[in-house]
């Protein structure tokens, strides 16, 4: 039986987090009322002229440098001509002949080990509007708020061979862009989108098969399912002696199947030509150097620093740096409490547990670092029990309450009151004469029974050490009677 290999390349569109659009001053904010973030430029009105947003170039340079790309210091924009209702000018301003970045790579981690995925090019372009299909009214509406929002398109070489590698590559890009601050990469809001170019070939063959391009992929899970579905479809066609057609296909994640949208266009079909309204961009050595020097600490560097500076394990450092937002929150807590390992334990345990239990996006985790720092300090000083501290932190996580005040108001602070301990112990011993007789008779297992009873009765107001000490003294006293 023939064995087949999947060959995959990606076109990843990343919306840049500039405040205004690429060629006009309209807002890029997501979620505005339809057609309210528009002007004559981004709606393609006759006579309107584009003006390049300098921040877009800076963000593209930051991304290109982080992805080990070569920089075209002389680059320019081209017009990609096609008609579609969400494309108001009947052309898209993009870059074909001289993209800003080219020939880069990123390294991904998979179950089979590390692998480099080459980046063919990275270019700037404007986004199109958004079509909204109203099934009830049997019509389509267009919202131009997204028209003119700046994008970088990252085109990989066909270096990936499985859905695992694709997801690892996308996660790497998303993490990189978020750390750089150039995009939030929210797939659900369309600020990161991926088109999958896929073909299959017999194992051992060096020539590529006929590829298809899949669109409408708005989650990593959908991308993985689409890859497996398209791979099976193409292999089935080949096994039946039929031909795989080069085309663009739309993936329906609900039906877990794809259908043809249109035959795949080549560059010549778009009739690209240099945009006459935009002058070429000259990128100086000084500008590139300035960008390099301003690059933030990326995830890989942060992981190594956490291991050396904070003495964390590679695993903990990896988890804590998956999200830039979470890593910054952790660093602030570690700095305030002066104990990075204890802070890491709280993040690895309670913060991530509550995030998962409440189905919260990790980017939305928000509490004052000082509040967790105060709680950690109180546990270390034995002013509150670990059990009660976890309950208090849940309130910090949900409502960002001040733990010191909350603990005082709710009587959760540990009190080293020997009178309270002795009175409680006498009460519990009187209520449990059988276990008490076993304890006095030397049955050590019963010791834990009384400690547990004490802790529940005192509701965390005494430390386990104080409870054990009081119990030992009382047992010795009774034995000597």
Give descriptors for this structure.
481 residues; Arc Repressor Mutant, subunit A; 3 domains; 15 helices; 16 strands
Detailed description of the structure:
This protein has 481 residues and is an alpha+beta fold. It folds into three domains: 4-287, no CATH class; 297-409, no CATH class; 418-479, Orthogonal Bundle (Arc Repressor Mutant, subunit A), CATH 1.10.10.410. It has helices at residues 54-66, 163-180, 220-239, 285-294, 299-309, 314-320, 324-337, 340-357, 369-380, 386-399, 403-409, 418-431, 433-440, 445-458, 464-479, and strands at residues 4-15, 70-71, 74-75, 78-81, 91-94, 101-110, 113-126, 130-134, 139-143, 150-156, 192-202, 212-215, 247-252, 257-263, 273-274, 281-282. The strands form four sheets. A nine-stranded mixed β-sheet has the order 2-6-7-10-1-11-12-13-14. The protein has a three-stranded antiparallel β-sheet with strand order 5-4-15, with no helix packed on it. Strands 3-16 form a two-stranded antiparallel ribbon. Strand 8 (130-134) and strand 9 form a beta hairpin. The chain is elongated, with a radius of gyration of 31 Å. One of its GO terms (molecular function) is ATP binding. It catalyses: L-glutamyl-tRNA(Gln) + L-glutamine + ATP + H2O = L-glutaminyl-tRNA(Gln) + L-glutamate + ADP + phosphate + H(+); L-aspartyl-tRNA(Asn) + L-glutamine + ATP + H2O = L-asparaginyl-tRNA(Asn) + L-glutamate + ADP + phosphate + 2 H(+). Residues 328-475 form the Asn/Gln amidotransferase domain. Its EC number is 6.3.5.-. Heterotrimer of A, B and C subunits.
């Amino acid at each position: 039986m023939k064995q087949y290999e999947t060959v995959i390349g990606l076109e990843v569109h990343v919306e840049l987090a500039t405040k205004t659009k690429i060629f006009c001053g309209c807002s890029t904010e997501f979620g505005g009322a339809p057609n309210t973030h528009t002007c004559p430029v981004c709606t393609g009105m006759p006579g309107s002229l584009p003006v390049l947003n300098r921040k877009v170039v800076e963000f593209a340079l930051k991304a290109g440098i982080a992805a080990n790309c070569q920089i075209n210091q002389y680059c320019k924009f081209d017009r990609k001509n096609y008609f579609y209702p969400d494309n108001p000018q009947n052309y898209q301003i993009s870059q074909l002949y001289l993209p800003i970045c080219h020939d880069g790579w990123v390294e991904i981690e998979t179950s089979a080990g590390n692998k480099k995925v080459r980046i063919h090019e990275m270019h700037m372009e404007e986004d199109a509007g958004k079509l909204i299909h109203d099934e009830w009214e049997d019509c389509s509406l267009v919202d131009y708020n997204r028209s003119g929002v700046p994008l970088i398109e990252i085109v990989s070489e066909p270096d990936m061979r499985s859905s695992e590698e694709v997801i690892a590559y996308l996660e790497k890009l998303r993490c990189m862009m978020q750390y750089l601050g150039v995009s939030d990469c929210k797939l659900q809001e369309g600020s990161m989108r991926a088109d999958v170019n896929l073909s299959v070939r017999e194992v051992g063959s060096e020539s590529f098969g006929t590829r298809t391009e899949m669109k409408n992929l708005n989650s990593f899970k959908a991308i993985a399912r689409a890859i497996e579905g398209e791979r099976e479809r193409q292999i089935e066609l080949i096994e039946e002696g039929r031909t795989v057609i080069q085309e663009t296909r739309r993936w329906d994640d609900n039906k877990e199947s794809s259908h043809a949208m249109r035959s795949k266009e080549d560059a010549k079909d778009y009739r690209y030509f240099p945009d006459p309204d935009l002058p070429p961009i000259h990128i100086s050595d000084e500008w590139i150097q300035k960008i390099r020097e301003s690059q933030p600490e990326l995830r890989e560097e942060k992981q190594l620093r956490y291991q050396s500076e904070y003495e964390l394990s590679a695993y903990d450092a990896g988890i804590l740096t998956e999200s830039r937002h979470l890593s910054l929150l952790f660093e602030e807590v570690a700095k305030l409490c002066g104990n990075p390992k204890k802070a890491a334990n709280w993040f690895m345990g309670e913060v991530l547990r509550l995030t998962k239990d409440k189905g919260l996006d990790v980017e939305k985790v928000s509490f004052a670092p000082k509040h967790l720092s105060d709680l950690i300090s109180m546990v270390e000083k034995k002013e509150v029990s670990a059990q009660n501290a976890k309950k208090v932190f849940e309130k910090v996580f949900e409502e960002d309450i001040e733990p010191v005040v909350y603990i005082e108001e709710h009587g959760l602070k540990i009190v080293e009151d020997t009178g309270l301990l002795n009175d409680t112990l006498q009460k519990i011993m009187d209520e449990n004469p059988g276990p008490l007789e076993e304890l006095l008779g030397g049955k050590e297992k019963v010791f834990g029974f009384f400690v547990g009873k004490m802790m529940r009765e005192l509701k965390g107001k005494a430390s386990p050490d104080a409870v054990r000490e009081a119990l030992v003294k009382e047992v010795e006293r009774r034995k000597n009677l």
